[in-house]
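Much of our argument rests on the idea that a fold can be written as discrete symbols. The amino acid sequence and the backbone structure tokens for this protein are reproduced below:

___
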Amino acid sequence: MKTILITGCSSGFGLEIARYFLQRDWNVIATMRTPRTDLLPASPNLRILALDVGDEASIRTAVAAAGQVDVLVNNAGVGLLGAVEAITMDKVREIFETNTLGTIAMTQAVLPQMRERKSGVVVNVTSSVTLKSLPLLAVYTGSKTAVNGFTESLALELEPFGVQVRLVLPGRSPSTKFAENARSRMDGNLPEAYGAIAAAVFENFQDESQVTYARDVAEAVWRAATDPASPMRIPAGEDAIAWASQA
């Protein structure tokens, strides 16, 4: 039975990915900064571990406790909405620390065992905004675009060792807490001059004609983890698929 380790499982995509793999009889290591046992059904195949991807000691502890990991899913991430000129560098660093450096650090921690076994899959969850840029998301988009480049180069680096690396690119998902979390970091990020742009962005957030559901992302991660012939980039969700076709 294979084991998957997923970061950011307290809600949204990570929680659904964990649920999806549990239902298919995988060993699932669901990680979150504050572990909760009530989010997933009790199962002998489930372990919930504390993990903060911005803390190297936390990463070392979690990876040591996990043991053999056949599939790593770097899903943990935070959003940020705002005009670049108004975003403090502390906020910028926070976004890159989690979205970009956290992904790299987790990958570094798990790679040695995969390389030695000459098998394994690393799946990095980024965003469809890397396919179609949107205003007021420049910092967030930059953090995810960096992961795209990292992933594609890493795939070439690990190919001789039989380790596969994939990207899953979700679209906009109103059913998750992404927008709520991004708004929580908005204080001071939107000067009055950007009011009209912000209004248009918020209106777009309400459009549910084409959206991504958490299950779309779980299915894309399943494909990345189990299909050796899957493409490097896998868009997840109706809107992401449409954007990918236009890119």
About this structure: The helical segments are 12-22, 56-66, 89-117, 138-158, 178-184, 195-205, 214-226, 238-246.
